[in-house]
Design goal:
47% helix, 126 residues, alpha+beta, globular, Ribosomal Protein L30, Chain: A
Length: 126
């Protein structure tokens, strides 16, 4: 049997991008989906009952839509945010629609967006 503590330690060293790739490969290999099930809200009852307030989104994906004119600056910020190598960061920035962070908290996503936009990128939170 595998040493689970060692496995946990190794997985902890993965960057966000590497972890996302691992999830995709495991989903493909095992034929499963890691997506959380979506709860369907019940329709409000007739008779004037007010609808329950919608839940506020708590996790965001930070996506670079366009690197803009300062690709080098955007690559530097991307590397700071994700700890990926230079070649991988360059490839992500040049590809467009690159997910920088997945499932990030609102504060972390806003911070990453602000840093990337300051470097010249067009960024979207999803």
């Amino acid at each position: 049997m595998a040493d689970l503590d060692k496995l946990v330690e190794e997985l902890g060293k993965l960057s966000v991008v590497e972890a996302a790739e691992l999830v995709s490969k495991l989903e493909e290999a095992w034929g499963v989906s890691a997506a959380a099930p979506v709860a369907v809200a019940a329709a409000p009852a007739a008779g004037g009952a007010a609808a329950a307030p919608a839940e506020e989104k708590t996790e965001f994906d930070v996506v670079i839509k366009d690197a803009g004119p300062k690709k080098i600056e955007v690559i530097k910020v991307l590397r700071q945010l994700t700890n990926v190598g230079l070649a991988e960061a360059k490839q992500q920035v040049e590809a467009g629609n690159a997910k920088v962070l997945e499932g990030a908290a609102k504060e972390a996503a806003d911070d990453a967006k602000a840093k990337l936009e300051a470097a010249g990128a067009v960024v979207e939170l999803q």
